[in-house]
Amino acid sequence: MIAGNLLFQHWIVTLLNIPVFPLTFLNLVRTDKRLIKNLVKKYEQYMKNVSRVNFILE
After folding, report:
1. How far apart are CA 52 and CA 32, in angstroms?
2. Per-residue pLDDT of the chain (58 residues; tens, 9 = 90+)
């Protein structure tokens, strides 16, 4: 996402993408809660082994 913004030379593209970051994170949190509710132990174990998100590599 960040790299995509750097490709565009107009500031409006970057400005319009600012809300994308918190909305993406909120979606990740909601999805994690739903998966924990449905899969309980398996997903909790998975979360211990894997980080939620790495925005640097996105």
Report:
1. 9
2. 556 656 666 778 778 878 888 898 899 889 888 988 888 888 888 888 887 776 665 5
Residue 35 burial (10 A CB sphere; 0-12, 13-18, 19+): middle
The pTM of the full predicted model, rounded to 2 decimals, is: 0.59
- Within the chain, residue ranges assigned H as helices are 2-7, 11-17, 20-39, 41-49
Structure-block tokens of residue 49: 């082994």
Structural contact between residues 1 and 57, judged by C-beta atoms closer than 8 angstroms: no
User: 36: burial class by Cβ within 10 Å (0-12, 13-18, 19+)?
Assistant: middle
- Torsion from C-alpha of 44, 22, 24, 19, nearest 10 degrees: 170
